Please model this.
Amino acid sequence: MKHFLCIACLVGALYEAPAQTVLKLDLEQAIDIANESSLSAYRYQNQYLSGYWAYRTYRANRLPSLTLNLTPAKYNRYITQRYDSESNKDVYREQQMFNAYGQLAIKQNFDLTGGTFYINTDLEYLKNFGDTRNTQYSSVPIRIGYSQDLLGYNPFRWDRKIEPLKYEKIQKQFVYNMEAVSETVVNYFFALAMAQAEYKLAQDNVTSTDTLYHIGQERHKIAMISRADLLTLQLDVVNAQNSLKNAQMSVRRASFSLASFLNLDKNTEIDLELPGLPLRMEIPVDMALMKAKENNPTLLTQKQNILQAEQNVDRTRKESRFNASINASIGFNQVSDKLKEAYRNPLQQDLVSISVSIPLIDWGVAKGKHNMAKNELNVVRSEAKQDELSLEEEVIMTVNDFNVQRNLIASAQEALDLALLAYEQTRQRFIIGKADVNSLTLSLNRQQEAQKNYISALQNYWLSYYKIRKLTLFDFASGRSIVNKLNQKIASIK
Model:
């Protein structure tokens, strides 16, 4: 809640400000804003909701359904063929009638058997016009029945296996996508951090080169440096100014990219605060592999594909042989000229039907479909195995990289401190005439390179961290599942 209020205040301030706004951001705040406000997060939320309502529809189809079917009015006037017993011939006669129909039906599907249980009640009204005028009511007070394929394919049983798995995959895919958003933010964040660092270095370089050039001019007057060295210092001033302009444009581009991804105002000026040295943490490879196999949506997708392929094999196998179905019902019905009489002394109505379908000659079509389904199942199983191996490789490589990244950050920090000290000492020695221009330039380049290496080390560390979170859907820093952590967020967007 604290993070949300902070984000709301930050975003509100941005959109209220008429002029360019300076926003101070650390990495955690940038990720929070992206998860709440970015267009990517909005898209992933709607993808999840689509899958959620699909699962709700599946669950609803497993429950009893109550349906009211109505034909309130139906008028029909036509010429029909009738037999005239007096003349012993067929004649055409005009027929004119009004009809109304209503049915209330309850239906329940059974996953285990693949059958359907139903209860319904009917009422029909019929009025004839013309030479023979009469009115009739036909009622079915109650009818109870059951229908099912005896040997055929049962889609309900397969849906019971596949649909919950699909929903689990949708949930974890949503969390996976949100972690991918965090990973993207890390890239944009450090791209801007690198651009801002280069801009700061360019500013310092302009100041430094200008100072050194003026020192060089004074030393040239007393013949302490050559004309060539002075021109080199002058060239450094020009190059530093050009580098500053390029660095400024890079900052603008990187800032605009980050602001756009966070769905902030395009005029927002972002001032980044780099994360400090992270806490020492080593992730066990075996644990990471276990969590990836439990949670990664890629494996769940392949598991779903295997089930659907097995479903297709079962369907084509049973469609290739004979099938039998049964439909049985018992109820009551009655016909009368008056409505209340249509419900008195109803007659028993029974129905039992058995249907058999036997394929005799199909020229191998059914067999071909079945063999195709079996081959497709083998392909899907191979793809699933390959995806599992690829995931294992990616997890192992990412975890191993992460486990050494903190040491690399510490080394990069130490190198940066040494480079800063070395440059300052070389600069002082140049001022007093004990170092040449080449040594000074080399020392400056080393300092700038050390600064970039430090930022790159930070970026690689956090990229590895969020990539591991994405692959495993597990936060190793807190020791908690990210899926469970985001259940509240998932519930809030339903």
